[in-house]
Amino acid sequence: MRILVVNVNTTQSITDAIGKQAAGAASPGTEIVPLTPSFGAESVEGNYESYLAAVAVMETVRAHPEPFDAVIQAGYGEHGREGLQELLDVPVVDITEAAASTAQFLGRRYSVVTTLDRTVPLIEERLEVAGLSARCASVRASGLPVLALEQDEQAAVDAIAEQAARAVTDDRAEVICLGCGGMAGLAERVVARTGVPVVDGVSAAVTIAESLVRLGLSTSKVRTYARPRPKQIVNWPPSTSRTRVS
């Protein structure tokens, strides 16, 4: 089995961490192929960057040679999963939905701990779209930018664990979801600080993708996720030169 795990940002070190986490969760015989988009933002922390990442992820997967058996979109709360499902005949698993759905097997209510406060609405909206919001106790921000997660790992664990503990005591959450692909590898230390199950979305997505492949299941193509109709796409792809938004 061969699974593509696609980072939503262009930071290679984050792709490497996600790939390592995915490989650790994979079964023997499953090949994990980590991918970094060739264009996009160095971290994804808002709507503009999320929509840009959606296009980048789709184009990265489209350009990758087959065969592969499943695709994981490794961005928490990001757009684009639906487009991938239209394009592909193999299962597509988003880590947001993978973490939240897994959490619901483990407790009555779950909370998500993410990076910056501005990403909270994006995650809430994605959970709502996925039909997973009813049992979400809260989405809490650690206050850390994505790129800060790997600059000081202990500080990241402290900030995430603090919000996770508050989710358990104040919001009555029974399970915590790590709300960023860049948090890969931190789950065990957050468990030690909170005493509740902590779900890493990358690991959960790998397990779900493997199960779907083994069951011979993939996305329905009869309506919502039917393949895009053939038509001319004008001036695509655009220039991929580096730009900075200010």
Automatic annotation (TrEMBL):
Q: Which domain of life is it from?
A: Bacteria
Can you name the source organism? Streptomyces carpinensis
Indicate what this protein is called per its UniProt record.
Aspartate/glutamate racemase family protein
Q: Which is one Pfam family of this protein?
A: Asp_Glu_race
Family under the similarity heading: Belongs to the HyuE racemase family.
